Amino acid sequence: xxxxSRSLPRRWGRGTQMALLTCMTLWASxxxxxxxxxxxxxxxxxxxxxxxxxxxxxxxxxSASLYGAxxxxxxxxxxxxxxxxxxPKKAIGTTDVLAMLAPVKARKAVVLxxxxxxxxxxxxxxxxxxxxxxxxxxxxxxxxxAEAPQRLVGxxxxxxxxxxxxxxxxxxxHDGRLKGLKLHLANSRVRLTNPQHVQQLVKVIxxxxxxxLPIVIHxxxxxxxxxxxxxxxxxxVLPSAGDSVVQIAHCGGWGGTDQAxxxxxxxxxxxxxxxxxxxRHVLFDLSxxxxxxxxxxxxxxxxxxxxxxGLHRFLLGSDFNASTPAYTDSITRAxxxxxxxxxxxxxxxxxxxxx
Length: 355
What we know:
Elements: H1 4-12, H2 16-29, H3 31-42, E1 55-60, H4 66-77, H5 80-83, H6 94-101, E2 108-112, H7 130-145, E3 152-157, H8 165-175, E4 180-184, H9 195-209, E5 215-218, H10 227-237, E6 246-248, H11 259-273, E7 282-285, H12 296-309, E8 314-315, H13 325-335, H14 340-347
């Protein structure tokens, strides 16, 4: 069977819908993780020494209910090749996550809910009760992380464009079992060039920031996403986060080290260098960033930007189960021209919500 994980970045280049569908379907089936293992086994001469991770700051759990949404997306996009990859409709829970942490000796993991998926316009054909399904999925994550409270920290999620989004944020603020918010602008089809979308996004982020919750955001939302969109986010959205930490997933991309990802990260780098107050609490995670397609030139560019921004702002994450911590560790050490001291710093970065 061909290596699906190797073809993923090329498929992303075909457009936002194909990118989203492929990523979510492989994530649903677990195929990315299984194929990734074969690649990781070949990366035995990594130049950087192994360092235990303090935490995986970007991984997922899901209930079995999400598979209906995956199938609806498949039908809507008519993308039979990927839709056929849906495997057993198995929930991902505490036992699965803890097993993935062992190879990198991670003490902690930040579990991100995918409840936002039920509000996605890509699954509107399912006519979900979005408020109900979002709550149930967030509850699933809360119940799972409660089984290992010393190891796992849960983040709830919402589709920010849904009318119920702010109410869901406020519910979890008062509930207290989940410690942060996850937003996925691609899945929610947020357009930062749409003032109404920006206004609604600001409301949701402000609600979370009112309780000083950390926020993880998958920022890139379309093929046409670059300096303009990143600038709008920094200027018009980030101030609503106040002093809450905002973690930009995938270093500003949607996986990989393509030109758009590099452009977005550089916009942040320039604002950080200029000490823009709105970027003082911005972090970046390395989940799904380094791939088999990452060239030495792209890796060198990424490391140069990381050094410009400050390595204390970068966190390790696997995007499990689209990949695994072990694979992420192997390929990142093999490809990024960091020093061993720099790698130790990144692997050991500790944020307040995982202490």
